[in-house]
Structures are given as structure tokens and as C-alpha cells.
User: Fold this.
Amino acid sequence: MTGTGRSTSPLVPPPPPAISAADASRLARDHFRVVASAEPLGSHQDRNFLLTSTDGAHRLFKIANPGTSVAELEAQSVATRLVAEAAPWIRVPLVLDPETGADSETGASTVPVLEHEGQSVPARVLGYLDGDTLSGSGHLAPRAVRALGQLAAQVDLALVDFEHPGALRESQWDLRRAAEVLAVLLRVAACVHAVIADTDLTSSTDRSVSLFHQLTCWLDDHLADEHLSARALADNQFLSARYIRKVFAEHGTTVSGYVKQRRLQMIRNDLLDPRQDFVRVSVIAARWGFRDPSVFSRAFHSAFGGQPAALPPPPRGRLVIG
Assistant:
């Protein structure tokens, strides 16, 4: 779990990458041979930009959410090309081939994975479809509803034989998974609240502080994993291990140092919990990732100046019956 987005469940994607319009313009030029200005567009999970070239032509620059795989994006591009061929009267956004700078003839062009501030993000440039949404009127006439049904049927027929590895994915919009998605989102919300409450949003160090909270929140949720490491954290957050080490260094610690400190604190809390008075110390230590008793003993003594046996006995409450 992260403080502001990435969870342990693939059903809840991480936050979209933080990319400015100037960065988007540069990335489009360097990776897609498109020289244009970039204007941010709204999106729930991705970063979308309207690219406008000097001749007034428009394209859509879509920088995908870090949780989206290249295979998923290529599946979308192939499916779009199939629809365009089977039903050419349907307007679809065809993908640009990054190698040729022209519309891809198959839709199966390689999706470049761009590096931006330590984050790896897949991206595509597509045709831009101008138009309005159907939500403005508040009412859809029967004719419009019938047209939507016809359009859906035409798309289904175009994709009747479509198969692609990227089409097999878990989705948070699958109502069969609603309970799992809700449980994850509630835990994310709790972490977000903690971050906001502990962060000065006007400070120039907002981003570093917020990211540090995000990373440590995920670590706190995985302290019992004996394989917890900077690499595991980097893989989950779609950041480089080097960038993560830099963030922790800015806060005077390391990933391993933070994990060790938090594990020892959780062990100490359990040892002082009267409900766990009869649980062996070695069991509690192993629960929090310390499988080697001698390593745990040295670490605990270094952190708290003594062995667990030197801790005061847990307070005992009075048993009341009736």
C-alpha cells in the first residue's frame, strides 16, 4: 500500500506520472519525432496532452499510468486498427509508429518506455478526435440510445476474432471485484489522510516529503515480508532503486535502516502488549521479519539498550465478570 496511490492490488493503479506540458512537448519530439506544443487534458489514470504542431494539426500524446503494461497498450492499438479496418465509418484514434512517424499499419508498433525523473512510463501518440461528450444535455433521445447500441454492436463484430495477451488483465471496473477494490481504496485513503495531516502543502519540499510518506507507508504495510528491500519497493512503485535511495537519503535514512527501525518498534510494541504475554519472543520477532534470533538480539539491544527480557512486564487489567 502506498500513501497516495500504488497499492499491493493490481486493481488499484498508482497515481499518474507527474509530467509538465514542457516535458510532454520534449518527450514527443525526442521519442516520436513530433514537434508541437503540449496542452494538458484531463484523465483518471494517465497523463494526456493535446499536441498542436505549427501547421495546426492535432494529436493526442498519451503517457500511460505506470501500472499499465506495454502489452495492454499494444492490445488497445491492435484492437483500434481492427475496428478501423472492419468499420471505416467509425472514428478511432490510430497509433503513431514511433519508428516512421506515420500511422501504424498494424497497430502493433512498439510502445516506447520513457524514463522521466526515475520513473519508467510507456507512452503513445495517437490521432486526436475532436468532439463533445454526451453528458451535457442530461437526457439522451431514443435515437441517440439506438445509435450507441449500433456502435457497440459494430465494435463487437469487428473484434469477434480478436486475441492478444494484453487483453487479459484485471480491472477495477469489474463489478465482480468491487469488494476487493473498496477494501484497498479505504486503506489508501487512510494513508492519504496521514500524509496530508503531516505535510505542509505550501513547502518547497512538498514533493519529496509526500513521496517519502508514500514509500514508507508501503513499507509499513509489508514489514513482515522477510524479502523486503529497496528493489522490492522500487518494483512496486515503478521507480528506480537509485532514485528511491536518493529520496531516503534526503530524509537522513536508508530503506534498510527504516525497515529495521520500524520492525524493532513493532516488536517492542508487541512485547509490551498484555494480550501477547504468552507468545515467545522468537515468534514475535519472526512475525516482523527477524528469523535469526542472534541477529534480532543484537539489533534489539542496539536500538533499546537491553534485551527483551529487561522490558517491564505488560500492564495487566482487572478482570470484571458480570
About this structure: The beta strands are 37-41, 47-52, 58-63, 113-116, 119-127.
